[in-house]
């Protein structure tokens, strides 16, 4: 079976340089858009400790869930805030279309105080076609009866014990809590205009 290839497409730009929410589709990138925050959604914490902050935003054409990846604080915006998004992308999560902002994206609070918006169509409603696309991209499970996590190791088995990295003998592994590499990343404070930038 041929491998699935994901192609990211730039969205159609409007005369003002922004993309209307209702025109968003899966696998778009380089999205510049704006919207008013309707509601904040529950924050998810990843294994690395960073946060995934989500909110529902709307513009005159419709609404969508906007997700900020690798966030370090959760109270970024409040309902009623008007925000601008630069270099965002769309993805599918649990069969729903999402607009996301990652390391290469930027988001900021606009100085505008009023925006005419429409909650419908809700572009993040569950879509069976999107759910099928999401399932098709997930790797296939191992054949039934095959246990890839545990197996009987015979003489001369070259497989490494769990938790041991190649090239680092167990007695030379760094102690718990030891940090390697450069200093921890520090997020820059927002500027006077409330401008936030995605982590590098």
TrEMBL record:
Q: Which GO terms describe its molecular function?
A: DNA binding
- Choose any GO biological process term that the UniProt entry carries and state it: response to ionizing radiation
Protein keywords: DNA-binding
What is the organism field in this record? Ancylostoma caninum (Dog hookworm)
User: One GO CC term of this entry?
Assistant: SOSS complex
| Matches recorded under SUPFAM superfamilies | Nucleic acid-binding proteins (SSF50249)
Gene3D superfamilies assigned: Nucleic acid-binding proteins
Q: What is this protein called?
A: Single-stranded DNA binding protein Ssb-like OB fold domain-containing protein
